[in-house]
């Protein structure tokens, strides 16, 4: 039972990180109508710069802003340099150009920082364990990720639902042309939204560093999971992305932890050993297929006019 | 239709040039070229099959490498169980990819546009992770095959030149099928559905079934390419269907020229020769490929075929 709670926390932590990635993707798609395969590269840049700065300065307080700033700067540069030319193109052009960017960035980090994976360390003040539930200590670092992630989600909600700029973002998402005609500066809006997405991806990446290894191509697998999240949640919807991210994080973690013992109840042990991990690795895609079969637009499609 | 005549001329000249690869590499005493070009022909089949759905059908599948993987694993698994009949292995590969393509198509064709891209990508990732997690068939390390499929003493695939012409025959067959398919009634329906699915439905065509048909045909063709890849390499691993492989096949189609029949084959030749040369010069070939790819797109995406016959291919879907 205690282990189940710990796994539930792990699922929440994974879900929160997926949300940070999915939020940027879904915003960029909802407002600019752009498929961005290079979003994983921003995650990777955040992770690399943070890990390298921490190694060089031994200061996590310097490493965090460095990682965020690097992801933000990279995002703004590719938005102005490349994405502006892609907004009017079809999806095929967008997929290919951002795929090219991904290939480029994956090798660029190898050129700058070498091909070996970096094992980023947890900062000292977060290295221990915290006892939230008696008898089940939980790593402080993972708890910090949950807290930061939920705080960012709340902040994002406040910005989009309660501020003037959030109103312009929502207006841009429902009708770009009309928002532009009413005086919103669409060019600036695009850059701001893209930069916001880059910042969130960078944050996810730098927090992921000490949990996974920091390596070239690290953003690719989480990018595809983030795609699954926004497809389930309904592309363009932040609320859908949040709910779907937590659900996917939870289902994936639980599947990996409990499917093998569950199958063991009614299958011979060798069959369970084979089927458990196999089904666990496919679980969220099966969920996605099921959701899409009944609701092709996702669970919470944004209202478009 | 001068452009059409030129196009056909290029196709014949190109296929003739490809047929001459083994004697030329023998004359140059470079047997390596036969291996390289066998691989190129196999990827030509994959690119040709993708061209059918993205150019004629307007279905932007970003998970096409999954069929390479399924076809290759079908051969690998048959081999692991001691089935050495080459014909049987190819049939198993075709049946397996048909089943997987039908499943993926049934779900993902319910959507379109960006959803379709992301869903095909996600499903290919699903099969990729499945292949990693099944330790019985090698898991992440992949599996080595015992021997090439047997086609009797007439077609000994262990001979590199025989294998080359064997693959060449498949490419020629698929090229012939595709050139007739896209001009047939079936081809006209899927081309019509690309431009305006509603109008095609209003004309009484069951658009979904036609699109699913094209999707499965394309998957099976690519599955045969995967089977041939396994026969050539005698090795199968999840890396065959990594998501970036799907992107590479798409790049081959775009480099050659979409919807030009022979274009994807030219693209596969250009891409893999470029890869072969650049990986010899630098270990960061992805960096240069990425820059080249972004440049091609920003300059307006015109394939090699358009250079040859000067006809601008215009994007008419999105």
Description:
The complex is a heterodimer of chains A (305) and B (318). Chain A is an all-alpha fold and 305 residues long. Chain A is built from 11 helices and 2 strands, in the order ααααββααααααα. Chain A has one domain (13-294): ABC transporter involved in vitamin B12 uptake, BtuC, CATH 1.10.3470. Chain A has a two-stranded antiparallel ribbon. The mean pLDDT of chain A is 88. Chain B is mostly helical and 318 residues long. Chain B has a single domain (2-309), classed as ABC transporter involved in vitamin B12 uptake, BtuC (Orthogonal Bundle). Chain B is built from 14 helices and 2 strands. In chain B, α8 crosses α10 (207-233) and α11 (243-256) packs across α12 (263-281). The longest helix of chain B is centred in the last third of the chain and has 27 residues, at 207-233. The radius of gyration of chain B is 19 Å and the shape is globular. The chains are: A mainly alpha (305), B mainly alpha (318).
| Shape summary of chain A | globular
Annotated CATH topology of chain B: ABC transporter involved in vitamin B12 uptake, BtuC
Rg calculated over all Cα atoms of chain B: 19 Å
Largest sheet descriptor of chain B: 2 strands, antiparallel
Strand order of the largest sheet of chain A: 1-2
Under CATH at level 1, the class of chain B stands as Mainly Alpha
- Unreliable stretches of chain A: none
């Amino acid at each position: 039972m205690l282990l189940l709670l710990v796994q539930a926390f792990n699922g929440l932590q994974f879900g929160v990180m997926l949300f940070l990635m999915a939020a940027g993707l879904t915003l960029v798609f909802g407002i600019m109508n752009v498929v961005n395969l290079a979003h994983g590269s921003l995650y990777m840049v955040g992770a690399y710069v943070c890990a390298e700065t921490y190694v060089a300065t031994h200061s996590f307080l310097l490493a965090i802003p460095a990682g965020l700033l690097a992801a933000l700067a990279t995002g703004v540069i590719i938005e102005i340099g490349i994405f502006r030319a892609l907004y009017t193109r079809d999806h095929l052009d967008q997929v290919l150009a951002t795929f090219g960017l991904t290939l480029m960035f994956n090798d660029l980090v190898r050129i700058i920082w070498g091909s070996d994976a970096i094992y980023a360390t947890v900062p000292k003040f977060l290295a221990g364990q915290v006892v939230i539930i008696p008898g089940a200590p939980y790593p402080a670092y993972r708890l910090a990720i949950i807290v930061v992630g939920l705080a960012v989600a709340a902040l994002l909600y406040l910005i989009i639902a309660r501020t003037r700029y959030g109103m312009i973002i929502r207006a841009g998402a429902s009708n770009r042309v009309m928002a532009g005609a009413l005086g919103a500066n669409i060019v600036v809006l695009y850059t701001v939204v893209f930069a916001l997405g880059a910042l969130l991806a960078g944050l996810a990446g730098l927090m992921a560093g000490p949990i996974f290894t920091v390596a070239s191509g690290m953003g690719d697998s989480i990018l595809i999971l983030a795609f699954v999240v926004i497809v389930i949640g309904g592309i363009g919807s932040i609320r859908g992305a949040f709910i779907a991210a937590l659900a996917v994080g939870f289902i994936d973690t639980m599947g990996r932890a409990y499917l093998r013992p569950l199958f063991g109840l009614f299958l011979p042990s060798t069959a369970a050993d084979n089927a458990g991990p196999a089904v666990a690795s496919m679980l969220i895609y099966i969920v996605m297929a099921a959701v899409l079969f009944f609701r092709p637009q996702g669970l919470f499609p944004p209202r478009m006019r | 239709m001068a452009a059409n005549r030129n196009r056909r001329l290029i196709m014949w000249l190109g296929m003739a040039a490809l047929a001459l690869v083994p004697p030329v590499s023998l004359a140059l005493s470079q047997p390596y070229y036969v291996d390289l070009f066998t691989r190129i022909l196999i990827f030509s089949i994959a690119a040709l099959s993708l061209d059918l759905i993205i150019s004629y059908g307007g279905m932007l599948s970003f998970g096409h490498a999954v069929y390479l993987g399924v076809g290759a694993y079908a051969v690998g698994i048959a081999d692991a169980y001691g089935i050495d009949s080459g014909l049987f292995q190819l049939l198993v590969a075709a049946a397996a990819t048909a089943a997987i393509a039908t499943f993926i198509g049934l779900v993902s064709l319910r959507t379109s546009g960006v959803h379709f891209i992301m869903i095909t990508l996600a499903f290919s990732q699903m099969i990729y992770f499945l292949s990693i997690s099944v330790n019985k068939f090698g898991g992440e390390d992949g599996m080595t095959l015992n021997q090439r499929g047997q086609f009797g003493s007439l077609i000994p695939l262990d001979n590199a030149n025989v294998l080359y012409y064997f693959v060449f025959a498949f490419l020629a067959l698929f090229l012939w099928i595709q050139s007739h398919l896209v001009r047939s009634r079936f081809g006209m329906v899927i081309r019509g559905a690309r431009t305006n699915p509603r109008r095609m439905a209003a004309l009484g065509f069951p658009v979904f079934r036609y699109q699913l048909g094209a999707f499965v045909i394309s998957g099976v063709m690519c599955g045969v390419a995967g089977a041939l890849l396994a026969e050539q390499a005698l090795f199968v691993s999840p890396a065959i269907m990594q998501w970036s492989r799907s992107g590479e096949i798409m790049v081959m189609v775009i480099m050659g020229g979409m919807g030009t029949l022979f274009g994807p084959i030219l693209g596969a030749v250009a891409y893999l020769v470029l890869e072969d040369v650049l990986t010899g010069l630098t270990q960061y070939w992805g960096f240069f490929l990425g820059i080249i790819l972004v440049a091609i797109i920003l300059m307006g995406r015109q394939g090699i075929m358009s250079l040859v016959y000067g006809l601008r291919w215009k994007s008419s879907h999105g």
